[in-house]
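Appendix B. Chain record.
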Amino acid sequence: MVGSRKHDHEPDKCGGLQSNLLPNQPAFITRMSLDINQLETRLWAAADQLWANTGLKPPEFSNPVLGLIFLRYAEKRFHEAEAKLIKSGLEVSEIEKFDYQAEGALYLPDTARFSYLLDLAEGQDLGRAVNEAMAAVEAENEELKGVLPRSYGRLPNTVLVELLRVLNGLGEVEGDAFGKIYEYFLGKFALAEGQKGGVFYTPTSIVKLIVEIIEPYHGKIFDPACGSGGMFVQSAQFVSRHQKRAAEELTVFGTEKANDTVKLAKMNLAVHGLSGDIREANTYYEDPHKALGKFDFVMANPPFNVSGVDKERVKDDPRFKYGIPTTDNANYLWIQHFYTALNERGRAGFVMANSAGDARGTELEIRKKLIQIGGVDVIVSIGSNFFYTVTLPCTLWFFDRAKARGARWDEVLFIDARGYYRQVSRAIRDFLPEQIEFLANIVRLWRGEAVETEAGSLEMLQQQFPEGSYRDIAGVCKVATLAEIQAQGWSLNPGRYVGVADRASEDFDFTERLEALVEEFEFLNSEASELQSAISESVTQLLAGTAT
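Structure tokens predicted for this chain:
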């Protein structure tokens, strides 16, 4: 499949990356995209160099930097709103705080502006001045109370001066680009933090694929493990791409256990011009949004295979009405929570451990119920190295409660996306835009929806679906009926249904094949262990019965 599966970084004649843009795309779009990418890289390189001179740990440096990006964005929006109000006939002296807020901007007192801090003399206590600026922003804007960083005193004055100078260059970019750069920095800091970084950040290409498949055009979105809010941001960008205003179409609700991460999420929403209700809570035991049956969309990347959840505290919770797993593993608590939070027409998309698709015992019974009621919509296998924290592959699950009342109620679409990726570095992969669009278009074809080709997936679609309608493709996608799923022991592992693509010998990828074999081996080992336990238990009972 030419141009459809793996992509490595390849230098073009200018020494940069080869462009994946379509030939007929306007030159200004290409130029703007390249300019933003270059700006991201340049800003990060400068910030990273300054970081090296501080001796600070990743979170000690990341929060202040993200706070300054936020402040630079806030001032830009402030001046844009001011210009608009003046154009409408108001004098500057007549503009009130609520006028700025009505235009979607934060109100910034003089001493809370990025430009004021930039103009301070180097000899002054800049750390204290920035802390006071952040406090002033919070005081004037209730929704940000307790959110902005106040740790600038830990940064040397020289580093702060340089950071302000470097980030001042953001004044030249548009609002959407601010958000993109904020997300870029979030991702870089998550990579630097390793395991901890994965707690607050889901790689953007994974989030985009989830968004493209659940299609959140309008309604209430819920993420009960919201991290830094990436699911909300990409949902908003999806709406904007379809020519509507996200602030008018979407309302967002999130919970997050870590207070610092709640702050990151609120800043992330603000820098993208969004507002939302983000609460600090432990989702296993708390339900601050009264989520049962409430939401149009649920999106999440929950922590996998969590042990130690107190089953006594959750056993009567209606969010987990399909059963409490007997194993010490919270995966199926999350899965149930996502499903029961949906309204009757709601869709959910979330990241899940591969092992959940074949889990046995009480987890199998819960999975069986969800499949039988017709709510399981699509299951997608993702290859290894997409996450900064783990190298293992994962699975994306999708629910659609409206499907249970439609013609497809007894079908599930399985997609094996493990062969689709771009090799970003030796240890990291992501999806190209056209790969995300192609995978989402497989779902659209199955649902009978119009496909989208703006990101460049047309060639791949024509190659794989020449008739313009859905078909099963070995190694790529397969629609399985409930009878077929039952025959596979109610497994939701795409590998059991999709099969293997016909490939020429030179297209054989040893690493990819080995990963698949290791994954299958681990499953068979797990199954063998469970059978051994069951046999031992039966023998023990038999012997006990004989003895009596």
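Further analysis of this model is presented in Appendix C.
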